[in-house]
Every structure is written in C-alpha cells, then in structure tokens.
Write a structure and sequence with these properties.
Aminopeptidase; globular; binds coenzyme A
Length: about 325
C-alpha cells in the first residue's frame, strides 16, 4: 500500500470539488446536522483568493483512489489553520500523518503555530500524536428552522432604554464606527481557552472588505446592533448562504461588559432571527447553528432559551508547525 500526496490546483474545478467532498465526508462521518462548505461557495472562495492568505490544498490517494484531504490557511503572524479528513474505510493507515507531514513541509518557515479542529476522539488523539494540545472546547448548538410559531414573540424584548436596529448586508454608514469598534472588542474578549489570541483590529476598511468578500461568496449578512443613547453597545450577526440556505450560521454575538446581564444579548438574537425570517431564501432554511465555549455559561443558557440544543462538541488544538 502506498500513500500518495498531491497538491490541488484550485483552477481545476472538478478536482477542487472532489477535494471539498472528501473534507466534507470525512468531517461529517458519524455526526448529525452538519454544516459544510457548499461546492458553489468553495468555487467562489478559491476563484478569488484572499490577497494576504497562503493556502495549501492536498489530496491523499491510496493506489490511485482518493481517500483523504487537507486544507491549510495562514495569514502573516497568525496561527495556520489546518483541516485534515480521511474517509472512514481508510483510517489508521497513516493517511492523516502523511497529509500533515506534507502541510508542515509546505508551510515551514511561514508560521510557527498551527491550529486544528475536530469533533471526534480520533481527531483529538491524532492531533495529540502530532504534538498538539487542546486549546478550547466549544458546544455546537443547533435549533431547527422554521422556529415554532410564537417562539420569538414569547421572548422578552430589549430593556426600554435600548434600541435594536436590524438590517441585511453592508453596515449603514451611521453605525459603521460602532460596528468596527464592537467587532474589535469581540476578538479581544471571546473565550479562547489556551489558544493564541490574535486581535485583528476591525477598522472600517476591513469591515467593508469583509462585507464585499462575503457577498461575493453568496452570503447574506443578517445583522443587528443594540444602542443606548445612540451609542452602539452590542451586535450579532447571522450568515445565510443564498445558494445553500439549508443551514444558517449564527456568528458573533457581543455585548459590552458594562451593560451585560440586562437581556440585551437575547433581544439582539431575537431581533436578528426576525430579520432572518424576512429574507425570502430563509424559507429553505432547516436549522441554525452556533458555537459557544463550554466555559461560556451565560451564552449557553441564552441559546438554550431560544431553543438551541447541543449536537456535538468541537475541540480546537494548537501546536508547533515546525
Ligand atoms: C482524525 C483523522 C484525520 C485521522 O486519520 P487517520 O488517517 O486515521 O490517522 P493516521 O492513521 O495517520 O493516524 C496517525 C496517528 O494518530 C493517532 N490516531 C489516529 N486515529 C486514532 C484513533 N481513532 N484512536 C487513537 N489514536 C488515533 C495514532 O497515534 C495514529 O498512529 P498509529 O496508528 O501508529 O497508532 C480521521 O479520523 C478523520 O478524518 N476524522 C474526522 C475529521 C477530523 O476530525 N479531523 C481532525 C484532524 S485533527
């Protein structure tokens, strides 16, 4: 048995989609209600690569049969994110080890730390065997869509001094400074366990660039901001893939520390879910997914009150790249 590792040229669309399918199937094995990047989004993402991102796409074959895949991305001065998946029938034959070896050889010298994600004991054992250690564990919680009638109406609204504004797409100019400031605070505050924290200041240009890239990749950004005296104190964001609306992603939610515990987080999520329902494509949505650190009890409880249940646990591990 010989394992062969080859690079995937993203311009070869058939090969790119085969590679994406291997990652999807490897990560989905044995799990329920799994989100995976659609073929359409994959094509769009690699057609127009991020200007400062270094990416490695690898395919593993045994006797000419594709059985595993790896994807790694690195930005200057940030940990490299690595994903490796092997089809169920071909595990424990050294395929993942060979893929990781190739990722390391390709990226050596460009970064010092790598990070990986897994939902299984096998993944944790594999990553540990490769010298990585657990950084954080997150609950993946899911709620079925559409929500039962009356769910949102039964939840309390915002406190009387708080105004919640919701929209879809680019941030309105009058909220842009507040949005950028809150996003930066989020990256400083979000529980990360022992993982390396890279605070990426979200200046206005970065916010606009991100909005453009997400729109190019087919995402509708459903957003809400909470304001007290016209000052933004919290935000939340949902990503709805228009070509593939079945699974909706609840992304960041952040409330400034000084106004926490007043129901602003829940009011933001409720308002944003209402706005989501008004996007025609959401009629095809079957569930909403979110991730919360196992140590973040307030957010886990808030999500449960909206109807979210845990489906599995994500473990993020980190270790030296070299
Ligand atoms: C994790 C995964 C990629 C491992 O792929 P694999 O090809 O079976 O792994 P390898 O055969 O290269 O294993 C290398 C070493 O990892 C460890 N390992 C891998 N799977 C393991 C398991 N199920 N239990 C215990 N240790 C395991 C062992 O130390 C193994 O060496 P050994 O077989 O000589 O004992 C595969 O199980 C998978 O695709 N899982 C779903 C996707 C995922 O979670 N990816 C996360 C990557 S960190």
């Amino acid at each position: 048995m010989s394992i062969q590792i080859t690079g995937v040229d993203p311009r070869d669309v058939a090969l790119l989609l085969q590679w994406n399918g291997l990652l999807r199937d490897g990560y989905a094995a044995g799990r329920e209600k799994v989100w995976s990047r659609s073929d359409e989004t994959t094509r769009l993402q690699f057609q127009n690569p991020h200007p400062t991102r270094r990416s490695v796409l690898l395919l593993a074959e045994i006797d000419g049969l594709a059985v595993g895949a790896a994807e790694a991305h690195g930005h200057p001065d940030e940990p490299v994110d690595v994903e490796i998946a092997v089809l169920e029938g071909f595990r424990r034959r050294g395929v993942a080890r060979a893929l990781l070896h190739a990722v390391r050889s390709t990226l050596r010298g460009t970064a010092t730390v790598m990070r990986t994600e897994t939902y299984s004991d096998a993944g944790v054992s594999f990553a540990r065997s490769a010298g990585m250690r657990v950084g954080v564990r997150e609950s993946r919680q899911v709620v079925d869509l559409p929500l039962p009638p009356g769910t949102l109406d039964s939840l309390p609204g915002p406190p009387s001094d708080v105004e919640v504004v919701s929209w879809v797409g680019a941030c309105p100019p009058r909220l842009l400074n507040g949005w950028a400031r809150l996003r930066t605070h989020m990256s400083e505050d979000v529980p990360m366990g022992d993982l390396t924290r890279t605070v990426v200041p979200a200046d206005i240009d970065a916010v606009r660039r991100n909005e453009e890239r997400m729109a190019e990749q087919g995402y509708a950004l459903v957003r809400s901001v909470a304001c007290v005296d016209a000052h933004a104190v919290g935000y939340t964001e949902i990503l709805l893939s228009l070509p593939d609306p079945k699974i909706v992603l609840q992304d960041d939610t952040f409330v400034e520390e000084r106004v926490r515990g007043r129901g602003i987080g829940r009011a933001l999520k409720t308002a944003n879910l209402r706005r989501l329902m008004s996007v025609p494509e959401s009629a095809g949505s079957r569930f909403l997914q979110t991730y919360t650190a196992l140590t973040n009890e307030p957010m886990l409880a808030l999500n449960r009150s909206v109807g979210f249940d845990e489906v599995d646990v994500l473990t993020v591990l980190e270790g030296p790249l070299g």
